[in-house]
Amino acid sequence: MGQRQSVGDQFLRHSYTVQCHPTTTTHTHKTRAMKSIVKLAVFIAVLYSVFQYGKPHLERLTGTLGINELPGASSDAAHCVGTAERTTETFADVVVRRARPPVDINRWSGSYRLAEGRLNDAELACQCPGEACELGQQALSLLAEHMTRWDESVHNKEPVLNGARRLGRIYDLLNTAKRKL
User: Domain 68-180 adopts which CATH fold?
Assistant: First the structure.
């Protein structure tokens, strides 16, 4: 017939049943899974932020160290063309980030001064002999004109006409300079 269980056995069996109740177990697994998903989402958001905000600084650092120089070219000419290209990219980035209406003149001016400093450094880097350096100098001269027009138009609250075309000419000169290396 039936075995009689002691009170202790009944207590242990009841405790075991409560701990293994399907609702409790499912709820615990769902909570753990949700916590894992939230942690993953936070990790991805942090990683994305680090990438977005750290990328310009990393590019600036690698450019400063000369990592972006073109292989197989004379070091002066490659440095000139690489610096001119990075300067053009810096100014294009300033325009994209700071020249959209409504323009914050203080932020524009700070970013413009940074680009101007880069332009001066690039002009010094392009004081070298050779066709690639001459093309780099021409590109920087066009860039200086382009930057002045943008600065005047931002301060006068006027649109810049043919900005993309001018920037395209600068990049064409730089691409030709790369081929001359």
Answer: Four Helix Bundle (Hemerythrin (Met), subunit A) (1.20.120)
Do the beta carbons of residue 151 and residue 115 sit within 8 Å?
Answer: no
What Å distances lie between residue 48 and 19, 38, 76, 90, 149, CA to CA? 41, 15, 36, 21, 35
CA distance linking residue 147 with residue 112, whole number of Å: 8
CA of 144: how far to CAs of 98, 122, 147, in Å?
Answer: 18, 11, 5
What is the CB neighbour count within 10 angstroms for residue 21? Answer: 11
Sign of CA dihedral 159, 163, 164, 167: negative
pLDDT, tens digit (0-9, with 9 covering 90-100), for 67-105:
444 444 468 999 999 999 999 999 999 888 888 888 899
SS3 9: helix
* From 41-45, 78-82, 153-157, the region with the lowest mean pLDDT: 41-45
